[in-house]
Amino acid sequence: NPVVAIVFLIALELISLVFFYTGSRKLFGSRVAIMALALYASSYGLVSFSRWLSNAMPVIIIGNLMIYILAKTFEDKKWWLWYWFWLGVMFAFNPAAGIGLFIFGLIYGRVNILKSLVVFLIPAIPQIVFDLRHDFLISRGVMGILFNRPGDGGDRLGAFWGTGQTVFNFISGVWGWGVVWLVVVGLILIILGEWDKNKKMIFSLVFIQIGTMFLFNRAIYGHFFAGVAGGLILLLVLSLKKYPAIIFGLVFFNFWLWWGGFRAPNLNLTPMGTANLVTLENRLKIIEFIGQNKDDYVFHSYDIPYYQDQVWRYLLWWRGVRDPAQKSNILYAVSERDWDRPDRLVEWKENLRKISRSEKGLVVGD
Asked: What's the longest Cα–Cα distance across the chain?
């Protein structure tokens, strides 16, 4: 049952908040830690990017653990090895979210660099073996993101050359985090305020990561912030800790975003989205509809935001419905409403009409 994966990841994220709070308290005291936890726990953007069922990447969970580990490094330098180990785990799920943290570790890490790199590589052993056995598939993919601009035809350093578009994407990405975009305003107060070694460390952690994001071909979007989400919120709270009423206003703002999300299916209720649990029952009705057919069939789906049908194929397998065939006279075409780009869905349906005729159908929910 896919719900098992959701419950498991939610439980891990809740546990990670304990580490985030404890680390924040060690670094900046109880008042800052409580305000940061309030923002973190209510953040619409952070929960959206947790992606509990689609592309499930516990990078945010590991990022919370990083705050705790950094706080512990002031007590014992050996904790830097744990930093490198969990950074290796983060890379296993999303390298883009950890490249800046890797550079940060090289600058701030207070242990033998060779030993650190060995610890860092331990979680990557399965992927290294996979890469070697499959013609460096992962390595070529990463290099493509870094160096190739779509339609450019050259091997230039992707987003660095498209500065205008990159800055736009950066602003859009930060805005998409809900409360975190306000850290841009908070930076002015941070720079003007008093500095200590803890604030300097968190500032460096966040902005080394943000700086490296300009090297990427896909520029800057939500997932790149995952590893430093806790640090971004801490910077925001540090800039506004003298004005706690503003923090509570931001919490209210996030709940307003939540209400809008629940009322707009396109934000949460797609198979590739973040709230599949809500629509699982409706989707299983479609699976049962397909399962009534005992003959071979071909399956084609229109999924938001990408043309990928892994979720549907998983549900077919889970319910014991016969796998789609390569060729058949029967075609099941499953689509969901596209709230953002309805023109693409219209085009998809027009192409279907050119190759088939509809015998019967079923409409469930969206």
From this structure: 72
The whole-chain average pLDDT of the chain stands at 77
The neighbour count for residue 33, using CB atoms within 10 Å, is 21
Neighbours of 91 (CB within 10 A): 23
Looking at beta carbons, which pairs linking 200-203 to residues 24 or more positions away fall under 8 Å? 201/70, 201/108, 202/27, 202/70, 202/231, 202/234, 202/235, 203/235
Three-class SS of 3-52: HHHHHHHHHHHHHHHHHHHHHHHHHHCHHHHHHHHHHHHHCHHHHHHHCC
Q: Measure the CA–CA gap between 110 and 223, rounded to whole angstroms.
A: 28
DSSP per-residue string spanning 138-190: HHHHHHHHHH--TTT-S---HHHH-HHHHHHHHHHHHHTTTTGGGHHHHHHHH
The conformational region for residue 334 under phi > 0 = left, psi -120 to 50 = alpha, else beta, is: beta
CA distance readout (Å), 83 to 73, 101, 153, 167: 9, 10, 39, 30
Contact at 8 Å (CB) between 242 and 249?
no
Instruction: Flag whether the pTM goes above 0.90.
Output: no
Q: For residue 249, what are the contacts with CB-CB under 8 A and spacing of at least 6?
A: none
DSSP 86-145: HHHHHHHH-GGGTHHHHHHHHHH--S-HHHHHHHHHGGGHHHHHHHHHTTTHHHHHHHHH
pLDDT winner (highest mean) among 309-313, 324-328, 339-343: 324-328
The end-to-end CA distance of the chain, in Å, is 22
Give the Å distances, CA to CA, from 176 to 18, 48, 206, 317: 25, 10, 17, 35
Is 289 a residue whose pLDDT tops 80? yes
Sign of CA dihedral 268, 274, 277, 281: positive
Residue type at position 176: G
